[in-house]
Structures are given as structure tokens and as C-alpha cells.
Amino acid sequence: MRNMSARAEHYREKAEETRVIAEMMQHPETKEFLMSVASDYVMLAGVLDHMADPIPASE
């Protein structure tokens, strides 16, 4: 599942890049939209992290 972790990190990097671009925007709606995209990237990374974690054995 290492590939999932690498993909999650990729999406976190994309989120940061998107936030940097959003901060440069003058138009409020564009800035808000890009921040939403960045948030979605982070959420996707979290899903991939969850998928990469081994399922705990039942106790």
C-alpha cells in the first residue's frame, strides 16, 4: 500500500500549490473556488491514507 501513501502525499502537495495560487487571486470567487479545490485535495489524501492503513484484526 506504499503507492497509496505516495499518492496521498502527491495530493497534499497539489493542495499546497493550489492554496499558493489562490492567495494570488484578486477575484474573491476565484480565490474561494481554488481554496475549495485545495480542501478537496486534502480530503482525497485523507481517504487514500485511510485506504493504505491495514485493517485492524478483530479482538
SSE topology sketch:
Blueprint: H1 2-24, H2 28-52
Helix pairs in contact: 1-2
The counted number of beta strands is 0
End-to-end C-alpha gap: 23 Å
Order of helices and strands, N to C?
A: HH
Q: Rg to the nearest angstrom?
A: 15 Å
How many helices? 2
- Structural domain tally: 1
Q: What is the arithmetic mean of pLDDT?
A: 90
Q: What's a concise summary of this model?
A:
The protein is an all-alpha fold. It has helices spanning 2-24, 28-52.
Report what the structure shows.
The protein has helices at 2-24, 28-52. It is built from 2 helices and no strands. It has 59 residues and is an all-alpha fold. The chain is elongated. Helix 1 runs antiparallel to helix 2 (28-52).
Which short descriptors sum up this protein?
59 residues, single chain, elongated, mainly alpha
